[in-house]
Fold each of these.
Amino acid sequence: MKPPTGSASSKQAATPAVRRKPTPAEIAHQNSMARFENGLQLFNRNQFGKARGIFERLTENPARELAERARVYLNICQQRLARAAPQLKTAEDIYNHGVGLANQGSPEEAEQYLRKALKLAPQADYIYYAIATTYALRENVEGALEYLLKAIELNERNRYQAQNDADFANLLEDPRFTELLYPEKPLT
């Protein structure tokens, strides 16, 4: 049997739903969920250092389920990062570890290891180059240019490598960077 036209059920369907503003607690929960998803993306890209920081902050979240999930991922991040602490004896070992940290999204920590490697091998152009990339990733233009210049002085090939290195993308608009990579040839 069909309900008569004009019944309450057909009137409800025709009435648009009234949207209410989310409460501050709902907004905070949405923001926490977005941070959690960002942490998962970093985790899935093996950037455990960055993901760990996000998950650490979320463990104090008032939403118990979210805090528990964050603790699980935090523990996994800590385990994966703990495994990556090999015995570093040579400049090359320390350099490789620093580059690995940079690739995992921890340029500050990478820089510390790269500086140690540089103390052991002060003429290693590739270490200067790697430090320049960590500075560039952290948007320290002056530091990036200083170390890149030294890397190029030690080995001209670093100039050509830097021309296509995505780590220097935020320096492309700086005329000093352009001049360093594409110096004018003197007229003869």
Amino acid sequence: MTAAPAPDRAFDGVRVWRLPHRPGTHGEAAARALLGEVFALPPQALPLARDARGRPQLHAPLDGFDCNWSHSGQRLLLALGEGLRLGIDVELVRPRPRVAALAERYFHPDEAAWLRAQPDATRLPAFVRLWCAKEAVLKAHGEGIAFGLEKLRFAEHDGRLRLDACAPALGTPADWTLREWTPEPGYRAALAWRAAIIAP
């Protein structure tokens, strides 16, 4: 039996793997195969299923773990942690000519104002950072962006995004930990988690 591949990153016990991705595919087969290696199980025997909202969940005897994955462009990120609820997002940084209008329509007003104040050269990367952070939290929560991107507000503190306010269904901002990074040139990623599991 070969050992599972080492994670590319680890954040406070949450392991993250970076995998190649073929655009146009869902990524679940690759995620399932890697998780099978991690737990020394054939992919088809892995107790992984999607809940009613489509969120992947590990079931007994692995129900103490949580996993999530995201893909964009030619990369897939898979996160795995124990005793927590997590979400991950990766985005290929590509031209988006209407980021200001998108922020005005879908983001919290304070975030839209922050983006408007950014120099032209940094507005797109700032938008992608906010998008990744919001997606990561909402994927951990289990609702995805349908919950409402405006229902959580991030602000930059000492160069890092931090959740400053959120709808009560998400708990409190203090419940959440967020990590941002550049998994490779041209991509941005965010990982969010909280210890308590939020009831669907």
Amino acid sequence: MRRTLAGTLVFLALPASGFAQNFDAIQIRTIPVTENIYVLQGSGGNIGVSIGEDGTFIVDDQFAPLTDKIVAAIAALSDDPVQFVVNSHWHYDHSDGNENFGRAGALIVAHDNSRIRMESDQIVSLNGRFQEAYSAEGLPKITFGESITFHYNDNTIDVMHLGPAHTDGDAVIYFRDSNVVHAGDVFVRYGLPFIDQPNGGSTDGMIDATWALAGLIDDETIIIPGHGQLSTRTDLLEYRQMLVTIRDRMKAKIAEGLSADAVVASNPAQGFAQPGPGTERWLRAAYEEWRGGG
């Protein structure tokens, strides 16, 4: 069951972790966005694809066992191999194919902090999954702090860091001439978003980043979320309002001196997520973030 965020209920449904998946059974679905921008959906984060006279540019690359299928899906769109891979962040469900694409000659691009994370072993806090450091082929060769701009396939492509949000190394990719944004996991369509606080993520940062993104785009912009269906600026603002509402409810309870147990029991996610282990885990992480006055 799922409904929109506008005053109705959504369930917390976390993205596939990569554990115990049968990658042989996964098919790659190609969704046109504009004349030369596409989304590939398989398992893991949405892949953005730009094709044109300059070559092939992608955002994220999902799981390594899916690389051959992803390459085949791209080959159905263009004869050009992938020249650039931009990682929206370092989590494995968005970057596990880096080594394969890097060995094939693609240049990988990411925020400075994402490269730092990929250089060493990491633990993804959502599920405790161990993410091994990438080899040299899988590491970003081009990194940036605040932004970097590509002029590619008749598009000005701004790759921007809007502050720590989902992680400390998020990138939002704006194809300005096509009016398309790939938001990575700063914006997702599965309910309460995973915020990797132990790895630099911040709920306040998510709220701030989505507001900044909303200010850059317009009502005609097509948003590719990190997970889920193509979206609009209205969807983005509803998602942000969900986070603001939950934050306001929780901060009011924290100001009363309530414990984590009492705040969770007050059901501050009412209207947005069903009570359950996933929602409780999210609320407890948010409580720890905000109880110090953050």
